Amino acid sequence: MSSDEDESMSEQEEQTKSGKEDNGSVLDYIMSLESVPSKLPPHLELLKTRVLCKIDAPQHTDTIQYSGAYAALGVDNSIRLDNFRQNFKVQVNRLTEDDIEFDMIGIDPALANAFRRILIAEVPTMAIERIYMANNTSVIQDEVLSHRLGLIPIGADPRLFEYPENAGNEKNEKNTIVFKLHVRCERQQPRITVKSNELKWLPNGSELPSEDIKPNSSSKPKTFTSFSCSQDSLPEFSGNPIAPRNLDIILAKLGPGQEIELEAHAVKGIGRTHAKWSPVATAWYRMLPEVVLLKEVEDELAEELKNKCPVGVFDIEDIGKGRKRATVARPRSCTLCRECIRGGKEWEDRVALRRVKDHFIFTVESTGALPPEVLFTEAVKILEEKCERVITELS
Amino acid sequence: MELGSYSDQSKSTFSLADEDHTIANAVRFTLNQDPRVTFCGYSIPHPSDNRVNIRVQTTGDSAREVLKDACQDLMQMCQHVRSTFDKSVNDYKMSKTVKDMDIK
Ligand code: SF4
Fold first, then answer.
1. Which CATH architecture has domain A40-123+279-395?
2. Which residues numbered 54-83 in B keep a CB inside 8 Å of some CB on A?
3. Which among A67, A104, A391 has CB closest to B34?
4. Pick from A45, A133, A151, A251: most CB atoms within 10 A?
5. Count of alpha carbons within 13 Å of A24, Cβ hemisphere only?
């Protein structure tokens, strides 16, 4: 086939394609042409996908997000959804009742960070918000005790409750959990420690009268909540009573003759309002470290390199004739302390420390209201809801 | 809230109340992936103001539509993340129960 024919063919094809189909397929077609490079040259690929951790500072830390960043080279930098679907991977490394560690591969930090931020600040939980102090003769002040109570993780699924704003100002069985705490240290007795297990769930709502009790009125006095039914009659809670997640949190100490009597009301909220509603102890990620030996490191140098690293990233391998060579055995545990490239330019030329920009080792530690894996899915759902909100606002 | 001009719809600033870096940065990422976008960025005018401004300039399409598409993309990415994650967790739980049984 002559080159003339070739050209006219491709022109025709291009026209018919753009006439019939959407932009994407034309792009695909252009990308499939042989004269268009589909891959970046290796040195640019390295800068695009790795952070280079040099002795003084990390370099090339930003991700190249702009779709036309490599337009001059003819390389398309846009991530299309199918691409993302193909490349995205999740690998769970550890999952316990309280924490999860997983690798998230093929995602931009913009998204990974959005998930982390939502986990910390926007996934709702239940936390104690109001304290009705009936009596407190202990040494711990009312406000300090109230604050301590607020920080106790409550073992109740927040998805079963509503935000208090939704019900006006009414405190009903759908938005409030009531606990009672009444502890007394008798005279002549040793001091006692009040722990979170003393918080007793009141499924019928508050027991404290909210107004002065009129003498000889027969009707029940009004309380601080108006429950229409008992919470333990609801199917969600009948089998598993609500209690603080940890029962051994110290709240106060009482000396002989001292007493605390109070009622605590827990409501639903998010960590942005106050950290007590944050469902995670911490949620963080780190980029996967990559340690590369640029030159062979042998014999005494290998020994020296192995001893330089405090976490034991390097190992020594026998290559026969009594000679040894350093190898990178556990790059994942590298903390990037840069000890291995300290000690002169020659070390910087031997070892390259890098981070993979789209590989995140994500850890979520739950405070206990929800299991960690559920927390993460909830966080992703919240980001979806945000998008939906923007879309409806713009329509 | 959109702040733009009637005569030229290809440039607009969108002001989102009660939002912060979380969505703005993520949407900026998806906007950047769109070849129709010539410029995008976001700012938080004041830290005690619960609001973020997203600026979108396009090659000609309505900025509003482009931003909507970007949100749509982000949503689909999230859905994919969620399903992949759930699958991995289930796989992990399965393999773990199998391992536990092996020990016995
Ligand atoms: S940076 Fe520190 S932890 Fe990482 S390989 Fe070098 S010495 Fe080891």
1. 2-Layer Sandwich (3.30)
2. 64, 67-68, 71-82
3. A67
4. A251
5. 7
Residues with Cβ within 8 Å of residue A161, at least 6 apart in sequence = A126, A174, A175, A177, A267, A268
H/E element, A363: strand A351-366
This model of the complex carries an ipTM of 0.92
Distance from the A65 Cα atom to the nearest Cα atom in chain B, whole angstroms: 6
CA distance B63 to chain A (A): 11
Q: Which CATH superfamily does the domain covering A125-277 fall into?
A: DNA-directed RNA polymerase, insert domain (2.170.120.12)
Q: Report whether pLDDT(A105) > 90.
A: yes
Domain range annotation of chain A: 40-123+279-395, 125-277
* The pLDDT of residue A31 is above 70: no
- pLDDT, one tens digit per residue, over A250-301 is 999 999 999 999 999 999 999 999 999 999 999 999 999 999 999 888 888 9
Range of the domain at B40: 2-87
Partner residue opposite A384 with nearest CB, options B19, B79, B86: B79
Q: To test the ligand 1 pocket, which listed residue (A292, A307, A336, A350) has its Cβ within 8 A of the most ligand atoms?
A: A336
Q: What is the pLDDT of residues A159-209, one digit of tens each?
A: 999 998 877 778 888 889 999 999 999 999 999 999 999 999 998 888 888
Q: Residue A253 forms beta bridges with which residues?
A: A193
Tell me, what CATH number does B33's domain have?
3.30.1360.10
B63: closest chain A residue by CA: A394
pLDDT value of position A172: 85
